[in-house]
Amino acid sequence: MTLDSTGGTTGGTTPDTTTGAALGIDLVDMAFWDRPPQERLADFARLRALESPVYFAEPRVPFVRAGKGFYALVKHADVVAASRNAKVFSSEPAATSPEPPPWLAKIFGTPMVNMDDPGHARLRRIVFRAFTPKMLAKIEDEVGALATRIVDRVVEEGPRDFVEQVAAPFQLNVICAMMGIPEKARPYVLSRVDAMTEYSGVRGSLASPRTLWLLYGNLKAIVDLRRLVVRLGKARREKPGDDLVSALVNANPDGERLSLAELGSFFDLLLVAGNETTRNTLAHGLHLFTEHPEQRDLLLGDYDERIGGAIEELVRYVSPIIQFRRTLTTDHELGGHAFKAGDKVVLFYLAANRDPEVFKDPDVFDITRSPNPHVGFGGPGPHLCLGANLARMELKIMFRELFTRLPGLRSTGDPTYLLSNFDNGITRLPFAYSR
Ligand code: HEM
Predict the structure, then answer these.
(1) Is there an atom of ligand 1 within 6 Å of 425 CB?
(2) Where do the DSSP E strands lie in 202-256?
(3) Strand, helix or coil for residue 354
(4) Region labeled Disordered — which residues (predicted)?
(5) Ligand 1 in contact with 390 (CB < 6 A)?
(6) Does the C-beta of 324 come closer than 6 Å to ligand 1?
(7) Of all atoms in ligand 1, which is nearest to the CA of residue 111?
(8) Is 1 within a domain?
């Protein structure tokens, strides 16, 4: 397999099977993602019912996107098999869409999510220290204190928008706390993250002037954050402390450490991977518990017993990350299709999480569901979400704080959904509680 000038790969098949166009489904067109969630899920059910994966064409954008198109993996078994088999289903050149062109990786480096072993395994060994039970236990009190402060502020100000007042500040502050970013620098970080993620997730076509402008804002925000993190990394190299950045930039017992550039890439990844995901799960969670009061009563009847299952069901039902992609390194058969080296597949977690072959009544939100082998944190394999236990801890702490201190907490209107085919996001959610 060879890279072409846009970062795509040469080789691969021209589709000889059913195409999205033939079915009247276009997963590439943002108009599809603008439709109500139920309609999209119905189309994914149609795709799942077919014998083999369907091909979707992508437009080519010179110097930016190869426009090779991809096969949609929508069955649970196919998503699991592809995730497990990383030698064949590679995360290079990129697991994200659109695939960043090589010049972008040259400037900013490659995040681990877009890497294969051995480079990926080396980074994962180093950054794993951020997510050990010991490290999580260390920040648990701080996460609890943050949740308390955020709910204090809701009580002071009165409820307006759950995303703005609760979900967004909580998640961002947790990551800043982990990285040791001082409180006074956090509003700046938030503004940069908003600019950085405005483009991510394929919102619209790269060919339009508006998205090129967004891309510029996105790149500038990455540069701004890099400066901040590299300064922090340098300071911790000179004077190590008991914090995470010190642990990452100074050698572990095996002599491995992150370079300052790698630290910058890792921080970007944490901000993007960890920020929107948990925040969207919180917002969807409040809305779901409002729409399903019997599930909420069940949860509050025995919070400690039920919260673990509730979080897994939320992640299954919501699928906060809609998809990641892979590129085949060799010819391979999966799900009734003979793929060729260079073919691309997109793993639609949200479709796999509603597969009736695995989940009984998949469209029912049931916090007692067991077993619940969802792929919301990714399929089993080397890229399984590193932050899953952190996300679980945060959600457990924040829902407890919210439900115990704000009686009658509920959403009071329809969520405003983010137009994205990557984050299943909510940008605004009106809410209230009984005083
Ligand atoms: C409900 C919350 C979350 C969801 C649904 C989620 C989902 C995912 C998914 C689907 C992947 C797999 C990527 C792939 O297969 O290519 C992933 C990877 C990753 N996640 Fe999460 N995530 C969540 C929270 C977090 C948090 C809180 C953090 C950190 C602060 C985080 C950090 C990461 C990292 C670093 C990776 C890359 C792992 C690798 O490539 O080895 N995630 N996540």
Answers:
(1) no
(2) none
(3) coil
(4) 1-20
(5) yes
(6) yes
(7) 40
(8) no
Q: Which is it for strands 70-73 and 89-90: parallel, antiparallel or unpaired?
A: unpaired
Q: Is 383 in the pocket of ligand 1 (CB under 6 A)?
A: yes
Q: How many domains does the chain have?
A: 1
Residue to mutate, 126, 175, 385, ligand 1, most ligand atoms under 8 Å from C-beta: 385
In the block, residue with structure tokens 């992150």: 258
Å from CA of 321 to ligand 1 middle: 9
Which ligand 1 atom is the nearest neighbour of the CA of 394?
27
DSSP helix/strand/coil, 242: coil
Q: Is 313 helix (H, G, I), strand (E, B) or coil?
A: helix
Residue at 101 is within a domain = yes
63 in the Ramachandran plot: left (φ > 0), alpha (ψ -120 to 50) or beta?
Answer: left
Q: Yes or no: say if 264 and 230 are a contact pair by the CB < 8 Å rule.
A: yes
Task: Find residue 161's DSSP bridge partners.
Answer: 430
Domain that holds residue 67: 20-432
Full pLDDT tens readout for the chain, 435 residues: 333 333 334 445 555 567 888 899 999 988 999 999 999 999 999 999 999 999 998 877 666 666 788 999 999 999 999 999 999 999 999 898 777 777 777 777 888 999 999 999 999 998 888 888 888 998 999 999 999 999 999 999 999 999 999 998 898 889 888 888 888 888 888 778 777 665 444 344 333 445 555 566 677 778 888 888 899 999 999 999 877 888 889 887 788 999 998 898 888 888 777 778 999 999 999 999 999 999 999 999 999 999 999 999 999 999 999 999 999 999 999 999 999 999 999 999 999 999 999 999 999 999 999 999 999 999 999 999 999 999 999 999 999 999 999 999 999 999 999 988 999 999 999 999 997
Give the C-alpha separation, 394 to 400, whole Å.
10
Tokens of 261: 């550039």
The domain that holds 134 is classified in CATH as 1.10.630.10
- Please report whether residue 176 resides in a domain: yes
| Cβ–Cβ under 8 Å, residues 375 and 351 | no
Q: Determine, yes or no, domain membership for 144.
A: yes
Task: Please give the backbone phi and psi of residue 410, each rounded to the nearest 5 degrees, phi first.
Answer: -160, 155
- Which ligand 1 atom is the nearest neighbour of the CA of 275? 27
Q: Which residue has the tokens 């039970």?
A: 133
Q: Is 146 exposed, middle or buried (0-12, 13-18, 19+ CB in 10 A)?
A: buried
Separation of CA 275 and ligand 1 centre (Å): 10
Which residue minimizes the CA distance to atom 37 of ligand 1?
A: 113
- Which residues partner with 417 through β-bridges? 426
